[in-house]
Amino acid sequence: MSEATATSTETNAPLPPGPDGLPILGNTLDVMRRPLGFFEDAAEYGDVVTYRLAGQRFTAVFHPDHVERVLVDDHDRFRRWAGEEWGNTFAGYAEEGLLLSEGDQWHRQRLLIQDAFTPDRIESYADTMVGETERSVERWADEGRVDLKDATSSLTLRILARSLFDLDIEGRGDPVRRAAEALNERASIRGVSAFLPAWVPTPSNRRLHRAMGDLEDVLDDLVAERREDAADRDDLLSLLLAAETEDGTTLSEREVRDQLITFLFAGHETTALSLTYALHALGHHPDQRRHLREELDEVTGGEPPSLSDLPQLEYTERVIKETLRLYPPAYALFREATEEAEIGGYRVPEGSKVSVPQILVHRDERFYDDPEAFRPERWADGFEEELPDYAYFPFGGGPRHCIGMRFAMMELKEVLPTLLARLEVEPLGDPDLEFETAITLQPATPVEARVTRR
Ligand code: HEM
Fold it and tell me: In testing the pocket of ligand 1, which one of 111, 402, 409 has its CB within 8 Å of the most ligand atoms?
């Protein structure tokens, strides 16, 4: 066991160093002004750094050993934290869904839901992924100019809803995307709503409650319809409705609804952002785009890949890995120390929030040459094996790692080459992106592209 992973409970170790803040406000204003820049500056203090934000003490860890310690080795002493003291990142919605549940409830849910994510199940979604992408190809080409985040969100939401819930989401209006936007707006670290309870009537809280109310109505209708007509379906929704707990009771309406909300959000936003950033990066890197297309020509003759083609799309996979390194949708993970701990020779008091800024670890020059550059080639044979564990962790780690990881990787490997086989996507903006740090890593301004058929 390395020094970094040594554990202890009570400790006389000093608190970690960190940037001085203002009395009472701590570092709040600085974080709100430039969230990622704040983390970059904080990392100058070392691999374990303390700061104060909106009344809470935070410990940020920047070294892969510490990341592994918090997410994996000592996961039971660092529980997931979702901004409870600030009224919760999800504003009280989806509390009984897999992302936010805890303890026995989480464990029972994870075991149940895992059945919808076995390799066989995921493979059965491949045709839906390609079919929905072909629909988007036609629409984007007709539109000629698209906002990539909007266009990819609509695509990944259709894929998700069709695969996991056998649902034509477009026939139900657009409540999911409006609710996702409202959640991200409220959670944006630049706005005060992120630090206020959800009942405070700020404009963004009001928009959120309206959007979530609409979404809940749609989901309640959907569940009622499915209860009437559950025959011969084996998707995630049917699995949830049929599930029984040990004492023979079924999941409550609330639990089913919270699970739907969780998966509709976690399963489409993240992959849409990955596609947005991949298309943006490839648009500004013609050599890499050419390489990806040449691979596709070689493997499939330029057609959308079938399931059996995927293992041969090695370069495509490198593009996806590099995108998730440089633009990780889950840019930071958060935990809370349930008891006092020591990390890297420093004391982490009980109740301290622990931030794991994935995006900075992914861009750390100790592990990546020229870390700000988009270079899929770096993932050539052997590179990943040489990387320290947890220098790369786009899907998190430990028991609460992403349950949709295989789904997401397959989706990206089906969708990206299908889009590029059919379309020229020329980004219209600057190669350097500004970000908004909300629940996920959002582009601060629309990422627009001109789209033509090839
Ligand atoms: C590129 C796409 C994706 C990325 C980068 C991503 C990233 C992550 C990360 C980092 C976590 C762990 C958060 C933490 O430890 O605090 C997570 C959890 C989760 N993800 Fe994903 N995700 C992606 C796609 C998906 C998809 C497609 C689904 C569903 C189909 C999904 C559903 C979930 C759920 C339900 C959890 C909570 C798991 C638990 O706590 O047991 N994700 N994701």
Answer: 402
d(CA 292, CA 322): 13
In ligand 1, which atom is closest to the CA atom of 358? 10
What is the C-alpha separation between 47 and 357, in angstroms, rounded? 11
Name residues whose C-beta falls within 8 Å of residue 401's C-beta, 6 or more positions apart in sequence: 71, 395
Quote the mean pLDDT of the chain: 89
Tens of pLDDT along 28-53?
666 666 778 888 888 889 999 998 88
DSSP SS3 for 48: strand
Centroid of ligand 1 to alpha carbon of 394 (angstroms): 9
> What pLDDT, on the 0 to 100 scale, is given for residue 192?
65
- Fold exhibited by the domain 3-453: Cytochrome p450 (1.10.630)
CA angle 323/132/319 to nearest 5° reads 15
Q: pLDDT grade, residue 22 (50/70/90)?
A: low
Q: Which two tokens stand for residue 428?
A: 């219209």
Nearest Cα residue to atom 16 of ligand 1: 333
| Separation of alpha carbons 100 and 94, rounded Å | 7
* Residue whose CA lies nearest to ligand 1 atom number 17: 402
pTM here is: 0.93
How far does the centroid of ligand 1 lie from the alpha carbon of residue 401, in Å?
Answer: 7
